[in-house]
Amino acid sequence: MRILLVNDDGILAPGLAALRAAVEDLGEVTVVAPDSPQSAAGRSITLHAPIACQRVHVDGRFWGYGVSGRPADCVKLAVRELMEAPPQLLLAGINPGANTGVNVFYSGTVAAAAEGALLGIASVAFSLDRGGEMDFHRAGRLCRWVLDALLAAGLAEGELVNVNLPALSADRPRGVKVVPQGTAAITESYRREEQAGGSALFQLNEQYEHGPQEQETDVEALAGGFITITPLKSDMTDRARLPRLQGHTWGLPPEGNG
Ligand code: MN
Q1: Which of 153, 61, 164, 57 is nearest to 113 (CA)?
Q2: CA distances from 254 to 247, 248, 251 (A)
């Protein structure tokens, strides 16, 4: 199996090394990852500027391609230019920090997997919640266990799955929950620093709270100590609202130079 391994924390991040070690026996792993931290890059790509790509070696061994772009750039570049044949599986992570709820929109880890899914590749994003031991070796084994189960359950071309591991402790994870993504907004805050001349600097605080969710979602299940599995898709169309807008009488647009 041809596997593309990506992340948003940089090609030398420990989470990526742990995921590689956990899946290497599954096939041929190609690493294409940003050469600098790109967390919260979301789905952004590099326009109007060239992307540098260099072969990275670790302990004398070819490790992968370091790319001066975003996670989504890495996936595009890997599929269009760097790999001899498209990957059959894309794995992103392991990200330090959960990617649940609306963080899914900001996450470079999930964005990399979503880009893979868009290009027709079965893609899985892996993240590890903070608050426990950041034991990437253990997390890697858990990711592999989840991946084996996902492959057994069926993971088709173009399908995207978001996996989050709870903060690790002796009695966690408590199990697996397949749950929808939470969509309640985050309550964030900023540190404000007044500057000379009347301007101010704002620094987003790393601590935040998810808003209350309408049903059990990835946010609560993860906080409860479960591994969360959420199938995602690119189609953001609100199909329930399509008929109302389609039923509206739109008429003809006005002339541009009227
Ligand atoms: Mn990250």
Answers
A1: 164
A2: 20, 17, 9
Tens-digit pLDDT profile for residues 79-92: 999 999 999 999 99
Domain boundaries, the chain: 2-184+212-246
Going from the Cα of 94 to the center of ligand 1, the distance in angstroms, rounded, reads: 8
- What whole-number distance in Å separates Cα of residue 108 and Cα of residue 91? 13
Which residue shows structure tokens 């599986």?
Answer: 89
- pLDDT tens profile 152-187: 999 999 999 999 999 999 999 999 999 999 999 999
* CATH architecture label of 2-184+212-246: 3-Layer(aba) Sandwich (3.40)
Ligand 1 ion: Cβ-proximal residues, 5 Å cutoff: 8-9, 39, 95
Residue 256 C-beta-side C-alpha neighbours within 13 Å: 0
Spatial separation of the C-alpha atoms in residues 213 and 175, rounded to whole Å? 21
Give 17-24 contacts, CB < 8 A, sequence gap 24+.
17/136, 18/94, 18/136, 18/137, 18/139, 18/140, 19/91, 19/93, 19/94, 19/126, 19/140, 19/143, 21/137, 21/140, 22/140, 22/141, 22/143, 22/144, 23/91, 23/143, 23/144, 23/147
Calculate how far, in angstroms, residue 37's C-alpha sits from the geometric centre of ligand 1.
Answer: 7
Cα of 13 vs centre of ligand 1, distance in Å, is: 9
**Cα dihedral 20→23→24→30 (10° resolution):** -60
pTM for the complete prediction? 0.95
pLDDT number for residue 147: 98
129, 224 contact by CB (below 8 A): no
181: number of CA atoms within 13 Å, CB side?
Answer: 19
